[in-house]
Design brief:
By secondary structure, the protein is of the alpha+beta class. α1 (4-16) runs antiparallel to α10 (372-394) and α2 (62-75) crosses α5. Helices cover 29% and strands 17% of the residues.
């Protein structure tokens, strides 16, 4: 990239102002990396600088990887996208719908109309929902003594549906069940399966559910933004290292470089560095609307310490493919129409733009999600990547 200094300045300015503790940003094309940079500190309570090989909890950026693993099961003929999964995963059979609460404060539950399919799980249309953006699920968890999904306890997977399968987009624990499906069909624990069939073939050496000792020395701390003065402070946080189940919806740790490798595999239609992990037609299907007339909607928080309200590209129709949100229109001076994207709770973000052959990853580590300061930097980083890419093509 001809003008990497401009992006370096963006990152250093954001961290120098104290808006962001530390950040790593990378971008690439199908043929290779075009930018990698870091600024700020891994941990505001310590002096060590942020570096491009810093390890982050990538949270829901795990979902695209596990969705790709589930599509490997489809390719092998082990499951159909529209097959009733109740026979394979009994926990998904006869899961009731929560309709509200009676006068005594007890949940009103009814049978669901229709079965849950893999297409429902991968598009977040199964009716499963996170408590962060749904007050009824938060109340039900308290009522039934169900822990948060980040505990990685099996009981966290026992919440009811909030809608009938295939009728609404509700962002939730869908991909945790996709991970369970991969385990059942492959006969391997999810960590081992991903290592054998995704990470090792692609050379993603720093991605996994469990932190190695050498990764702990490169780990970014989690920070929380005060609602009072907006300042960031370091807080204790770690995903369970000996979990009851591997959280397919958000349990992975990774680096920006590793995640860009995954994004570049998608740009390359399933193959990278001589390793093929998906067929081209599978990648094409994953990048198309798989939810019909249903749209992705705004995430309205009911847990302000975990997330701000979150909506990418307000006013634009958004769809979901098999693993990614799809922005259906071009963003001026930035990504093209039908680009793929998503994010992680700790303010980690990525996009994949097949039409322009560009992908980018930007990682920070703070709560609440959808932090305005991080989103401003994300937008500016993306615009600068496209500006520099345009100059490169013109040269």
């Amino acid at each position: 990239m001809s003008d990497r200094a401009a992006i370096d300045r963006l990152l250093s300015d954001a961290t120098a102002k104290g808006e962001i503790a530390g950040v790593v940003a990378v971008a690439g094309t199908a043929s290779g990396e075009i930018y990698a940079g870091a600024a700020g500190r891994r941990d505001l309570s310590k002096p060590e600088p942020m570096t491009v090989d810093t390890v982050f909890w990538i949270a829901s950026m795990t979902k695209a990887i596990v969705s790709a693993a589930a599509m490997q099961m489809v390719e092998q003929g082990k499951v159909g996208l529209d097959q009733d999964l109740g026979g394979i995963l009994p926990d998904l059979a006869n899961r009731p719908v929560l309709e509200g609460w009676d006068a005594d404060g007890k949940p009103r539950l009814r049978p669901a109309k229709g079965a849950i399919t893999l297409r429902h799980l991968l598009t977040h249309t199964a009716g499963l929902c996170y408590e962060i953006w749904n007050a009824d699920i938060a109340r039900y968890q308290q009522y039934a003594g169900i822990p948060s999904i980040t505990t990685c306890e099996i009981k966290a997977l026992t919440t009811p549906l909030v809608a009938d399968p295939g009728t609404q987009w509700n962002y939730g624990i869908n991909i945790d069940f996709a991970g369970k499906l991969v385990e059942k069909l492959s006969g391997q624990r999810l960590d081992a399966y991903l290592q054998d069939h995704m990470f090792a073939p692609l050379g993603m050496r720093d991605t996994g559910f469990k932190l190695r000792p050498d990764q702990r020395t490169r780990l970014a701390a989690m920070h929380a933004r005060s609602p009072d003065d907006g300042k960031l402070t370091t807080i204790p946080f770690e995903m369970p290292q000996e979990p009851e189940f591997h959280m397919g919806g958000g349990g992975l740790y990774s680096t920006a470089g590793d995640y860009l490798t995954f994004c570049r595999m998608i740009l390359n239609r399933g193959t990278l560095n001589g390793a093929t992990v998906l067929r081209p037609e599978t990648v094409a299907l994953m990048g198309r609307n798989n939810m019909g007339d249903i749209n992705v909607t705004k995430l309205v928080t009911v847990a302000s310490t975990a997330s701000y309200d979150a909506e990418f590209f307000p006013g634009m129709v958004k769809k979901w493919g098999l693993g990614f949100m799809i922005s259906t229109e071009a963003v001026p001076s930035r990504r093209a129409a039908n680009s793929l994207t998503w994010a992680g709770l700790g303010n980690t973000y990525f996009w994949i733009d097949p039409a322009s052959d560009v992908a980018g990853v930007i990682l920070t580590q703070s709560l609440p999600f959808a932090d305005p300061a991080v989103l401003r930097l994300y937008d500016a980083f993306e615009a600068e990547v496209y500006r520099a890419a345009g100059e490169r093509k013109a040269a």
